[in-house]
């Protein structure tokens, strides 16, 4: 997507959907192979949780790998800092080490480079320094993809002003980074910004709202209020993931204005008690939301679901609630979620089902785990809540 390779003639088709279609085509032809569910665990998250975060893993057939390497051999290079035999027409650079100073590549000008990352480096070898980053910003003005995952810098140089072609910026697991530079707000073509597991991040500039092309955003931060970001200006945002924002006590009220959003996941925000929309008593019909998947995990203080969720009544297909120990009830309007297909409830011991749940006619999958009282109430034929769920084709109940 970052390289503009996903083109569609259908103005209503999103690039993410087209990309997923291509992946599934490759899987169906055995070029790619899905990784078994029990082999996929990342940061303690199991396959299903990762899936709803938009993360999938595949194995590539050896022949396809060989073909890809052969096809791209003149355009890609895995290099070290002291490499000198780098072709000047290379477009994609992957470093296998890092060190003090900057590479010179035999004084060659690599003006066509569009991708830089450390995919071939071990974690201990990716000690990216500030001089290296300044060199990248100076030398590669046409960069589209920059992956600095797992870097150990504390401050990112404020040098993004001229990186106008950048589409993808991965800063995930930069666990010492405390501040995003203000110049990052100049990246008006940026489509993906990944700040996942940036556990020391204390400052996100308020002008981040100028990233008008943003489609995927992951945030981990020490900030206690994200309202300054101005989420409602992200008119193209498709996926938003708030992960391990440990100081947040409420979620921004303008999440309800993300009219293009399809997937929202809120994970491990332990102090959050509410969504900032309690003042919204009456919902007018001026606009609707396109949210398809909404998951909440490890919000033990959350008291209620957001009122704006009813604006997704015609699009929401998946709702997942996990480890929300203070959540006691679904909202009264829950049955208007007529498109809901899957409902997951896990480790929410106080949560009860709504009285009119049998009106949610499209619900195909109900999964209840780690809720002993609710599981007891939902036992087939004998539980008092069985009549609410008996119309659902696929039901999984486990007390533990």
TrEMBL record:
Domain (Disease resistance protein winged helix): residue spans on this chain: 1-68
Keywords: Plant defense, Repeat
InterPro entries found in the cross-reference section: LRR_dom_sf (IPR032675), LRR_R13L4/SHOC2-like (IPR055414), WHD_DRP (IPR058922)
Record domain Disease resistance R13L4/SHOC-2-like LRR: where: 137-345
Xref: Pfam families: LRR_14 (PF23598), WHD_DRP (PF23559)
Domain of life of the organism encoding this protein: Eukaryota
Entry annotated with the keyword Repeat: yes
Single biological process term from Gene Ontology: defense response
UniProt key word Repeat: yes
Stated name of the protein: Disease resistance protein RGA3 isoform X3
Gene that produces this protein: LOC107481680
């Amino acid at each position: 997507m970052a390289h503009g390779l996903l083109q569609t003639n259908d103005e209503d088709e999103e690039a993410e959907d087209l990309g997923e279609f291509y992946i599934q085509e490759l899987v169906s032809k055995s070029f790619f192979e899905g990784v078994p569910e029990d082999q996929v665990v990342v940061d303690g998250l199991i396959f299903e949780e990762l899936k709803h975060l938009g993360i999938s893993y595949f194995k590539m057939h050896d022949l396809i790998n060989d073909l890809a390497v052969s096809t791209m051999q003149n355009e890609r290079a895995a290099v070290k800092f002291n490499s000198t035999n780098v072709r000047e027409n290379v477009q994609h650079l992957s470093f296998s080490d890092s060190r003090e100073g900057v590479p010179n590549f035999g004084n060659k000008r690599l003006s066509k480079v569009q991708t830089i990352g450390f995919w071939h480096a071990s974690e201990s070898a990716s000690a990216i320094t500030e001089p290296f980053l300044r060199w990248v910003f100076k030398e590669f003005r046409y960069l589209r993809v920059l992956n600095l995952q797992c870097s150990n810098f504390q401050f990112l140089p404020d040098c993004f002003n001229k990186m106008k072609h950048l589409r993808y910026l991965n800063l995930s697991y930069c666990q010492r980074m405390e501040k995003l530079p203000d110049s990052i707000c100049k990246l008006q073509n940026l489509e993906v910004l990944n700040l996942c597991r940036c556990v020391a991040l204390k400052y996100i500039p308020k002008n981040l709202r100028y990233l008008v092309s943003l489609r995927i955003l992951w945030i981990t931060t020490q900030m206690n209020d994200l309202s300054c970001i101005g989420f409602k200006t992200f008119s193209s945002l498709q996926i938003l993931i708030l992960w391990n924002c440990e100081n947040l006590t409420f979620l921004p009220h303008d999440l309800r204005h993300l009219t293009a959003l399809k997937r929202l996941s809120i994970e491990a925000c332990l102090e959050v008690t509410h969504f900032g929309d309690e003042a919204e008593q009456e919902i007018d019909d001026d606009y609707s939301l396109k949210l398809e998947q909404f998951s909440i995990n490890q919000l033990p203080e959350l008291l209620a679901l957001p009122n704006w969720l009813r604006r997704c009544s015609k699009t929401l297909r998946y709702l997942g609630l996990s480890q929300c120990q203070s959540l006691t009830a679904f909202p009264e309007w829950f049955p208007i979620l007529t498109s809901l297909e899957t409902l997951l409830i896990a480790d929410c011991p106080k949560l009860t089902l709504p009285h009119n749940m049998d009106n949610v006619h499209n619900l195909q999958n109900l999964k209840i785990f780690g809720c002993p009282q609710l599981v007891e109430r939902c036992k087939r034929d004998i539980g008092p809540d069985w009549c609410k769920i008996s119309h659902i084709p696929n039901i999984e109940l486990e007390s533990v």
